[in-house]
Input
Amino acid sequence: MGWGRMPIRGVVNEYNDEVKKIDEQILTLIQERKAITGKKRFSPESELLEEWSTRFEMDTSQIVQYIHSLNEAVPRRKYWEEPGLLLGVLPIVKRTVLEDCEYTLTHAMQYETLSIVTVEIKYLKETVEQVYLKPALTLEILSEAAYEIQQHGGHGGGAHTQMQFLVSPPLPADLDTVQFALIPGGDQMFGPAMTEIILDKQIDFE
Output
């Protein structure tokens, strides 16, 4: 079957049987991967990413984005859902240093239905050049309980940045049996489109 050049919304579509065959193979492999991994995240080690980068002539960040998109097996929590009442602040204070960057899990805001975990990242190396940190990371929690995790946002600039993650169900008060990690992923390329809401009115707190 020849697909020809079919216009879609004024754009010429050059889809054909050769590309269709490749796409069907990709979709089949995605389904096979999901059947194996279930709802768990599977991410390759950095050494393997470097090997693939050379082999397939792709940036490691691009490979990470593709792999991370395959790990999105759990439906995302809608960002507008109410977390319930704020119950308190859970100190975490776990720190590690890797390749000139300091990573600190500072705390979690504890709500009725979820936790909001904050990560601070700081570039430690002194340099006269301008530095801008762009983390492509997502939070991983190892525990007997299964957690749904979604990037919530962040801010910063230059040599310091902050990331926040929604964690559901809420973290327990005792973290002795809970392990945290940051793994490759979290790029917003595959995230949902957001509507910009401009807040420009004076707010008075009484």
